[in-house]
Specification:
Blueprint (H helix, E strand, L loop, with lengths): L2 E2 L11 H15 L3 H12 L1 E8 L2 E8 L2 E8 L5 H11 L3 H8 L5 H8 L11 E4 L5 E2 L3 H16 L3 H5 L4 H9 L14 H6 L18 H6 L18 H20 L1
Antiparallel strand pairs: 1-2, 2-3, 3-4, 4-5, 5-6
Helix pairs in contact: 1-2, 1-6, 2-6
Length: 259
C-alpha cells in the first residue's frame, strides 16, 4: 500500500498547475463556508492512499489523525460534443500539441481552453464518504482530498485531462488522426452504454483476449480497489473499465452498508 506524504500546502514549491488548482479551490472556499478552510488545513498533515482518477470521478483513501476514510468525489466532465471542437482547434496549434506530448499542461493550453468558455478546473463537487455512508454535497474528507490533488497534479499534469473526460493518450491519438480517420461517434464505447446495459456497437468492444477477465466477472467478485503503484501493469484496454468498476464497487458497497 503506497501513501503520499503530507502535502505541506504552504511550504512546498508547487508547479504551475498545482498552484493554479490550489488557487482555484481557495477562490471557491471564500464564499462556501468553513468546510473548505478546514479541508485546506487538514490537507497539510493528511495522507493520501489508493488514488484513482477517472472521467468526472476522484477516489482515494484520506488519512486524518490516523483514521482512514474512503472518499469518492464526482465532478462535471466534458462530453464528446464538447471535446470535438476543442480537438479541432488544437490541431492548428502545434506548440500546444508538442506540450501535450511532453505531458505538460501549460498556461497557454489553459488559455486556449478558456477561449471556448471552459475551465480546466471543475467547481461543482458531490460524492460519497465513509463518514456519512450516504450521498452528501461535501464533507471535510472530500475537501481534504481535493486539496491533496495538488500533489498529484504536480507529478502528473495530464490527470486534469482525464478528470475532464479524456486521457492524454486518447487525446494525442485524436490529434494525430485526420478527421476522416476518426471513429464514428456512434461506434464509440461510453461508460453510460456500458453501465446501463445499452446495446454496444461491435466496433467499440475490446478484442477477444482470453487473458483479460470479463469485467462482469470482476464485479461479481466484489469490491475492486484502485490499482496500487506496485501492481503488475494492467492491459491498456482494461484500465478505463477498471477505474469505472472501482467507482461502481465503492458506491455499491456504501449503499449496501447504509441499507
Amino acid at each position: 500500500m503506497n501513501s503520499r506524504p503530507p502535502a505541506q500546502l504552504d511550504q512546498f514549491v508547487w508547479g504551475r498547475l498545482a498552484r493554479a488548482w490550489i488557487a482555484h479551490l481557495d477562490l471557491i472556499a471564500k464564499g462556501s463556508g468553513e468546510i473548505w478552510s478546514r479541508g485546506r488545513r487538514a490537507a497539510t498533515d493528511a495522507m493520501l492512499e489508493r488514488l484513482a482518477i477517472a472521467r468526472g470521478s476522484i477516489t482515494g483513501t484520506v488519512i486524518i489523525d490516523g483514521r482512514s476514510y474512503e472518499v469518492v468525489v464526482q465532478t462535471p466532465w466534458w462530453s464528446a460534443a464538447v471535446w470535438k471542437p476543442l480537438i479541432e482547434g488544437l490541431r492548428s496549434q502545434p506548440e500546444r500539441i508538442a506540450e501535450l506530448r511532453r505531458h505538460e499542461i501549460t498556461a497557454a493550453f489553459e488559455s486556449s481552453i478558456q477561449q471556448s468558455n471552459l475551465s480546466l478546473f471543475p467547481s461543482d463537487f458531490t460524492g460519497h464518504c465513509e463518514c456519512s455512508l450516504v450521498a452528501v454535497h461535501l464533507c471535510l474528507h472530500m475537501t481534504t482530498l481535493l486539496y491533496l490533488l495538488a500533489q498529484e497534479f504536480d507529478r502528473q499534469q495530464a490527470l486534469i485531462l482525464r478528470l475532464n473526460g479524456m486521457a492524454l493518450p486518447d487525446l494525442l491519438q485524436r490529434l494525430n488522426a485526420a478527421p476522416a480517420e476518426q471513429q464514428d461517434e456512434a461506434a464509440t464505447l461510453t461508460f453510460e452504454q456500458f453501465w446501463t446495459g445499452k446495446e454496444l456497437p461491435s466496433e467499440a468492444l475490446p478484442p477477444n483476449d482470453e487473458k483479460l477477465p470479463p469485467i462482469g466477472h470482476l464485479l461479481q467478485e466484489g469490491y475492486l480497489p484502485p490499482p496500487e503503484a506496485d501492481d503488475p501493469p494492467m492491459h491498456v484496454d482494461l484500465m478505463p473499465w477498471y477505474e469505472a468498476a472501482s467507482l461502481f464497487g465503492q458506491r455499491q458497497r456504501w449503499e449496501d452498508a447504509g441499507a
